[in-house]
Amino acid sequence: MMLSSRTPDTDPKAIRLCCYLVVLSLLATLTVTGSGDDPRGDRPDVASAGGSGSASERDSEPESSASSVSSASTGRTPAAIPAYRQANRVAVLSVHGVIDQVTLRSLERRVEQATGDGADAIVLDINTPGGDLMATLDICHLLKTDAPANTVAWINPEAFSAGTIIALAAREIIVAENARFGDAAPVHGMGIPIPTAERAKIESPVLDEVSDSARRH
User: pLDDT digits over 60-95, tens only?
Assistant: First the structure.
């Protein structure tokens, strides 16, 4: 069973673009290691706020100085990052393409790798038209049970159908500029109409999952 992936007529604007800047401000001072270009094969990108070695220390000093001068010149106090958003190591995991069992297994491996490397926050870089229902529900369960509590969904730029349900399982949703998401409903993989009774049965676990996400966050 698949989830539909129609393109909506208008871009959703329920979440403001300024939320996106929160992630950028969190990652701006971090040192990124690893490649992570292949969403299904490479190690996750892990960013560290602490860093190590004299090179990292030298690199960070000018940024701190520049920030202090800028704050002093404008007379503004930099906004403090809320405690629940703070992290020392952040892993960025891409979720691109159709959601299926391969996506699930890949995420299982990369979440385990990220937490093993000491990541206390995960950012899901999502760009998907939707996909398999069971894989979607399993990914939601993975995020809620095995990933750090500080897990953020970054919609970059589309998360239709299954992608929206996965994003809702994260603690917070950040959207890129002109991002679009939503439009989630079960459809038959072969395009055959689903009888009313069968549709209600299929929708039940989806509604339970989304309701659970709403209660948690």
Answer: 344 433 344 444 555 677 778 888 889 999 999 999
What would the DSSP string read from start to end of 31-98? Answer: EEES---STTTSPPEEEESS--HHHHHHHHHHHHHHHHHHHHHHT-PPPPPPGGG--SEEEEEEEESS
CA-CA distance, 130 to 115, in Å (whole number)? 26
User: What pTM did the predictor assign?
Assistant: 0.67
Would you call the peptide bond into 157 cis, given omega within 30 degrees of 0 as the criterion?
yes
Calculate ∠ Cα 85-13-84, nearest 5°. Answer: 10
Q: Which of 97, 98, 122, 99 is nearest to 111 (CA)?
A: 122
Residues 54-89 as b/e (b if ≥16 CB within 10 A, e otherwise) read eeeeeeeeeeeeeeeeeeeeeeeeeeeeeeebebeb
Q: Based on C-alpha coordinates, what's the Rg of the chain?
A: 19
What distance in Å separates the CA atoms of residue 210 and residue 137, rounded to the nearest whole number?
Answer: 10
Q: How far apart are CA 16 and CA 122, in angstroms?
A: 21
Q: From its phi and psi, is residue 51 left (phi > 0), alpha (psi between -120 and 50) or beta?
A: left
Within 10 Å of residue 149's Cβ, how many Cβ atoms?
Answer: 12
Nearest Cα neighbor of 214 from 181, 174, 169 is 169
CA 102 remoteness from chain centre: 18
**Cα first-last separation, the chain:** 27
29-38, 74-83, 86-95, 164-173, range with the lowest pLDDT: 29-38
